[in-house]
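Hi all, long-time lurker, first post. I run a small reading group and we've been trying to get comfortable going from sequence to structure in the token notation. Rather than ask abstract questions, I figured I'd post a concrete chain and ask someone more experienced to write out its structure so we can walk through it together at our next meeting. Sequence below, copied exactly:
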Amino acid sequence: SRREVSEQTAQTVDGEVKRLIDEAFATALRLIAEHRDLLERIALALLDRETIDREDLALLAGDLPLPPREPLTVKGNHAAAIGALLAGCRQFYGYPITPSTEGTELMARLLPDLGGAFVQAVSEVATIAHLYGAGGAGVKAMTFTSSPGFSLMLEGMSYLIGAELPAVVFNVMRGGPGLGNIAPEQSDIKLACRGLGHGQTHAIVLAPASPQEMLDLTMLAFELTLKYRNPVVLLADGYLGQMTGKIDLPPYYVKPGVPAWAVTGDRAHRRNLISSIHLSEVDLEAHNRHLIAKYA
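-- Answer (accepted) --
Happy to help. Here is the structure in token form:
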């Protein structure tokens, strides 16, 4: 009957989709396995186990030389994750979403060995709230997401900007509007540059064009987000996130540190305050003028 044919067709399609997913996952695992030793050596170099205790690591800041390495051949998403680690990122909060998931997976694998924290949030709304808390503590933190998830973060982005907190959000863009599909698209550039949350909100926006720039601009993002106390949005389309290419590692990496303005609960930072609320109209106007001057 027509119904039986339809059910058989659906089963065939489901089986083919499952096969393609299995093949893609197997390929990703193979690529990670091929570079496992090198990635683990990078993790050891980042931690610098011989000279720095994990407790001391969070209190130090600055650049350290990275021993010369052979180029890596990795996906763009992996390159961005490696760049984040080299930039001193030790906190990751995220909700997996195609086509950005490989970066999230690599952070989950490496951060525990670096004394860091990986948290799979319950949603993108929770993710941006976690980034607010981490930014308030002066911690370098990031997330990977894709277009529908990025939309859900916009209210939190406004709070981050209003409170002048650092955060790095990597949006590996996919088709829209709505759920769209998982094919690559670049239309979120409009959203990131012209419509980022309510109020006088602007983020620093970086758009890599190669796997090498996925690494380099992710490192730059952490430098800029702390320098200007403003979120940085990285934009790459799905093609670039999945594209495999050669990357050269930089000659240095950055040790995590705690800025003087952070709210950490210790004596040195006791009188610090983080907030985006200004109940007085005069105070709010002054704050907005300050933000506009910073954007300029």
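A couple of things your group might point at:
The CA atoms of residues 212 and 247 lie 5 Å apart.
The chain is about 50% helix and 15% strand.
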